[in-house]
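Practice problem. Given the sequence and the SMILES for pyridoxal-5'-phosphate, write out the predicted structure.
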Amino acid sequence: MKKIRIVDLTAQYNRLKEEIDASIRGVLESGAFIHGPEVKAFEEELGNYLHTGHVIACANGTDALQVALMSLDLEPGDEVITTPFSFISTIEVIRLLKLTPILVDIRPDTFNMDEGLIEDVITERTKAIIPVHLYGQCCRMEAINDIAKRHQIFVIEDAAQAMGTEYIFSDGSRKKAGTMSHIGCTSFYPSKNLACYGDGGAIFTDDEKLASRIRSMVNHGQSKKYFYDHIGVNSRLDTVQAAILRVKLKYLDEFLESRIKAAAFYDRAFEPVPQILTPQRVDYSTHTFHQYTITLFGPCRNNLQNYLNDKGIPSMLYYPLPFHLQKAYQDLNYKKGDFPVSEEMADSVLSLPMHTELDEIQLEYITGHVIQFIAECNPK
Ligand SMILES: *Cc1c(COP(=O)(O)O)cnc(C)c1O
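Answer key:
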């Protein structure tokens, strides 16, 4: 059996090696390392894939979120609503910009923002909502956009984990994650659905004005060479990474299929085991399985992780501690118990190996060990 990795970047690279090497070599030979033609080509190709008006590449997903917020011209103390159960970037950039994060809990079925809690925390200072499409499944965007429209609030989607996921509206029409609201943000960090070999990110919008502000802001706020209209940042996607992403974008749907297939294998294997809650599917979103995350209530979760580790099966806790309990964010004056679903999930989730190169022998081995451990730890 091939060694099991939580994400297998080398196996995927070996499969695409010829094309990727050629694309990297092309950039090296051209010498255009910054703002090279590959960046623009990639932005266009990704825009076509997502059916969105403007794609602005940047250095990483965290910058994408920061620049998205910067483009909205908010005042210190303006409030931005998001969830405490995610990767730290959202709350981090809100705080860096001296805005006030207002947290709402997640839904227990999808781990995504509970849209039913948003209106309770809206005040006259609320300026934006950042829903995070966690693990590869969309938040209930129709409801969230509705609320935002009624209160004239911006919506910025964090689609870092949901590249290629589709939202299914009640009229049956579909849109890709990150393209349903004012601005969408994504990351091309090596483990993401569409990933480069280093850091990368992008911002999407259909709004021409926002697009030109964002494009200027990722480039020091420059309007024309050496003239600056805004305070911006230096956040660029390297040409080499853009060249890699152009190759990988062609295979994105194939990559997603492989993830969905692996998820289906996990589902089938765990079906007879009631203690393991497998990821729920919803009728308003596809699931592209950035993560395959099981929920295991009770003390078995931590022991399972250690057991799997001993068997050569890596697993991860995404995420072990919600934002409001993190040391850096204690001044927000939230306390334990404020977001019970997030807190319970942090103690109960476990993400299993998920990538495009998992084979049935590996999946058989992983699921076999999970099931064996659960039967012994929590007999039912
Ligand atoms: C990965 C990730 C980010 C940050 O992306 P980077 O490229 O690592 O800065 C932001 N939000 C979510 C939900 C992520 O998973």
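Check your answer against the key. Residues 60-62, 86-87, 89, 132, 158, 160-161, 187, 189, 199, 201 surround pyridoxal-5'-phosphate (CB under 6 Å).
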